[in-house]
Every structure is written in structure tokens, then in C-alpha cells.
């Protein structure tokens, strides 16, 4: 196991036209931008590379993520951003979904569903609801339960979601992603959408349809919108189980950065395990790309 050398970085710049970035733990941690990342992203743009941002964080919509990019002074077009909240809405839209969705998650999912023309209930609006010792009446028009990271997850929400899945015929179980934890703040890792999904799954015993990384659906959506193909793409992320797994599953090259969930010790522990799908490249931080000499960058 070794980190990418300047020659490796030059090879990446020559070979890949489209660079796909995770956000939390790769570009920033909480509200803090990782050192050198802004300059490294600008270098890619200066070299004519297509730069896209794909995050499993479902708490925000693409519009809200654009606000965060602006606050961090990272130039980006909203069309370059793909969140798992958007992928859930895009999936339902792609299958012609016409019913209502019940959300165990944050406002970002509600906003993306609304943008796709899908009526949604639950989410933060149900944070304060409690069971009252009598049967819960569920809306028969709910045809999907969409689960994402949910700081307001409650016994009521799990109950309502599970009742919809068990009693509304054909009700779909959608997971924006199944990440166990994430860098929602700079200093700690908090439970991710996987915790919400697991709570509902424990009741219903169903496997969810996962629309975010490492699901192939999200990549098909990205490629269709940006006229690109996986063989010319490289996935840059901080997680073996989503970012790197997504690259391997879809044919993209992979670059693991050690600024987020997967640390150096985690990677070392996995490296020799039989069947381990290694990242193609490893960097301590994506900001290290600026360590390549100016002359070498100009020749890329």
C-alpha cells in the first residue's frame, strides 16, 4: 500500500476527463473546507476537466448544497451536484411513480420529491408526533417510504413507515443510501442514513431499493445528464464501502483520500484481505494534487 506519487497524479490528469467527487470528508468536514481542495478543483477546471459532485448526504437538496458550495467559495453549477435525496426522487420519477411518499429523513428529501412533482408527507413535519395508545391511521395513497439520515427519527416515524410498507399493497421501500455514519460536523462522525434504514428494516424484514452510492442508478443518471462514460471517469471519495465500491461496481477508476471515514489504519487492515477491491490510487488529501510542479501541471 502506497500513496499516489507525482507521476501517479500526472497519470490521473492525463487519463480521466470527468472527475466525480464525494463531498463530506473529501472536500469538507462539517463547515470546514479541507486545505488545498479549492485550488486542486480549480486546477482540474483550468485543465478542461469535467467536475461533478456526488454525495450520499440526503439532508440537503441540490439547491441547498449549492448554497453550501457558495458559502465555502467553491464555484459550482447546481447541475453539477448530485445528492442521494435527488437520486431517490429521480428514481421514483423514472418509474412513473404517481402516489405519495412518506419520508423518514430531512427537508432535503422533501424538497427533491416536490421538485420531481411527487407529493410527500412526514420528514421534519413529523418530528414531534407521538403514538397515543390507539391504532395509527395510515394514508392508503402512500406508495413509497423514503429513508435517509434523520436527526428527528422517532418511534412514531418508524411505526408509521413500517405500517405503510406492511399494509399498503406494493409500497416501495427506498433508501437514499445505507451509510452507517458521516461527517455532518467537523470533529465527529454521526449516524447516517443506514441507521434510519436499519430501524425500519428491522420491523418489516424487507430489503430496500438503494438509489445513492454504490447503486448503479445514480451513475446512469449522471452519465445521461453529462454525456460521459465510466471508462473516462474517476471517483474521488473517502469511503471504501460507498465511494470506492461504487467505482468498482460501475467501471470508474477510484481515488481514495484519507481525510474522512476511511483512515490509514482502516485501509491497512483491509489491504491484504482476500477479495478486497483496492482503490486504484490513494492520497492523504485531494489538496495534495497541488504538490505537482507547475510545469508538470501545464503539460497534463
From TrEMBL:
Residues at the catalytic site: 22, 24
Cofactor: binding details: Divalent metal ions. Mg(2+) is the most effective.
Pfam families, sorted: Hydrolase_6, Hydrolase_like
Binding site for substrate: 183, 213
Catalysis performed (reactions): 2-phosphoglycolate + H2O = glycolate + phosphate
EC number: 3.1.3.18
Cofactor(s) demanded: Mg(2+)
Family matches, as InterPro entries: HAD-like_sf, HAD-SF_hydro_IIA, HAD_sf, PGP_euk
Gene Ontology molecular function: any one: phosphoglycolate phosphatase activity
Keyword GTP-binding annotated: no
SUPFAM superfamilies given in the database record: HAD-like
Binding site for Mg(2+): 22, 24, 238
Record's GO cellular component terms: cytoplasm
Keyword terms, alphabetized: Hydrolase, Magnesium, Metal-binding
NCBIfam families: HAD-SF-IIA (TIGR01460), PGP_euk (TIGR01452)
Annotated family: Belongs to the HAD-like hydrolase superfamily. CbbY/CbbZ/Gph/YieH family.
Protein name in the entry: Phosphoglycolate phosphatase
Organism: Raphidocelis subcapitata
Amino acid at each position: 500500500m502506497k500513496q499516489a506519487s507525482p507521476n501517479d497524479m500526472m497519470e490521473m490528469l492525463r487519463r480521466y476527463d470527468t472527475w466525480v467527487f464525494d463531498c463530506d470528508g473529501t472536500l469538507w468536514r462539517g463547515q470546514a473546507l479541507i486545505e488545498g481542495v479549492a485550488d486542486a478543483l480549480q486546477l482540474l477546471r483550468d485543465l478542461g476537466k469535467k467536475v461533478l459532485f456526488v454525495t450520499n448526504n440526503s439532508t440537503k437538496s441540490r439547491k441547498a448544497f449549492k448554497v453550501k458550495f457558495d458559502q465555502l467559495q467553491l464555484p459550482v453549477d447546481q447541475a453539477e451536484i448530485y445528492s442521494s435525496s435527488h437520486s431517490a426522487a429521480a428514481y421514483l420519477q423514472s418509474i412513473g411513480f404517481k402516489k405519495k411518499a412518506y419520508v423518514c429523513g430531512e427537508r432535503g428529501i422533501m424538497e427533491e420529491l416536490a421538485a420531481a412533482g411527487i407529493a410527500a408527507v412526514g420528514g421534519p413535519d413529523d418530528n414531534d408526533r407521538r403514538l397515543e395508545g390507539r391504532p395509527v391511521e395510515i394514508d392508503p395513497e402512500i406508495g413509497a417510504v423514503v429513508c435517509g439520515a434523520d436527526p428527528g427519527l422517532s418511534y412514531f416515524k418508524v411505526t408509521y413507515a413500517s405500517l405503510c410498507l406492511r399494509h399498503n399493497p406494493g409500497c416501495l421501500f427506498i433508501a437514499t443510501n445505507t451509510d452507517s455514519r458521516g461527517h455532518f460536523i467537523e470533529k465527529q462522525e454521526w449516524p447516517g442514513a443506514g441507521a434510519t434504514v436499519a430501524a425500519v428494516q428491522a420491523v418489516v424484514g424487507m430489503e430496500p431499493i438503494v438509489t445513492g452510492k454504490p447503486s448503479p442508478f445514480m451513475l446512469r443518471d449522471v452519465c445521461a445528464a453529462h454525456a460521459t462514460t465510466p471508462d473516462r471517469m474517476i471517483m474521488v471519495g473517502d469511503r471504501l464501502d460507498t465511494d470506492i465500491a461504487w467505482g468498482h461496481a460501475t467501471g470508474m477508476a477510484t481515488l481514495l483520500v484519507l481525510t474522512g471515514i476511511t483512515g490509514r489504519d482502516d485501509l491497512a487492515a483491509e489491504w491484504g484481505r482476500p477479495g478486497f477491491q483496492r482503490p486504484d490510487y490513494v492520497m492523504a488529501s485531494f489538496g495534495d494534487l497541488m504538490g505537482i510542479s507547475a510545469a508538470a501541471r501545464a503539460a497534463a
